[in-house]
User: What shape does this take?
Amino acid sequence: MRFLSSFRLILLLQVAVLVAGCSFFVGSKPEAAPVPPEITAPLDDEGYGRVELLASLAGEPLSSPAGVAVSPTGDVYVSDAARQVVFKFPGGDLQAPPELIGSEGGRPGQFVHPRDLAVDGAGNLYVLDDGNSRVQKIGPDGKPLVQVGSREEFADYFNLQDGYDEPLSALAVDGSGYIYVGVSGANYDISPHALVKYAPDGRKLWEVKSTLEGDVDVAPFAWPDALTVDEHGTLYLAHGANGTGKILLLPQKDGHVDKATVRDFGLLGKGPGEFMHTPAGIALTASGDILVSDTYNNRLQLFNPEGKLIAMYRLKGLPTAEFDRPGPLAVASDGSVYVVDEGNKRVLKLRLVPPPGAGVAGPERG
Assistant: This one.
């Protein structure tokens, strides 16, 4: 009898457990794990945010890094203007042996002083081949596909008396495959500077010029040194002209720059939101914020889409040397930021920790 009572008790307990747990098997879903809050950090007394150093590429095989880009799948490309090649780091692993793209020369797939890079949604690589005055489109298999520009086309921007014959200075590619090239004249004020747009098949569509002491087609700019474009076709140009904003926003309407809506921000100076000389890198985040290399103030600055400063970033306090002329930028899909630190001849992978309430660096648009 005592055995039966114990048996019944055990049976009742088992039934109770099954009844209590039946919701896991019949018609209900397990509760989703809570999403962890985004980590933020307050700005310091000078307005600088926190930076995390994720990786650094310096020394062999790198000699003179000049451009950086990240593919949709996370591959990282770095151009080397001295070795005349582009390095590909599959999966973004900067410590792994890279694949080589190109060699020195003027034939398709060869480069002379390759600089800015861009990658489109299909994984095609675009190389600003400055010494050959052209942009080359390279397929994911490494084969050259399209070439735009030539030394003959850009000869008007040369100054052979001063030995100046490499005027191409900035590159961007939009989501439809249109190619945008910045062209810098030899002299700041008396030479023409330009932006040129090409169709995906290489046809030249338009050219917007600016000569500070002459004709200005849309807005004054000089030495366009960094360029990006968003999904709406708005161009974001970092340039060196004084007396106007160093960051120029150029919306397009029907495929052409809409002069009525052009605006700028970021005057000359060393204070928050200001720039010295010519910023050499610009990229967009997932939230539409604008990240700029303030090259000659040795820092990065992050602005909202209206041009209001969100935060500044430097490497103070990290176990590495401070920035020395940070240049081209790329923002990866995981929010990490790649910076060509030109003076230190290295490429840095960083995480920029945003201040509370600010957008987070995310995949570059355009």
Notes: The radius of gyration is 26 Å. Helices lie at 2-21. The first strand starts at residue 50 and ends at 58. The chain is about 5% helix and 35% strand.
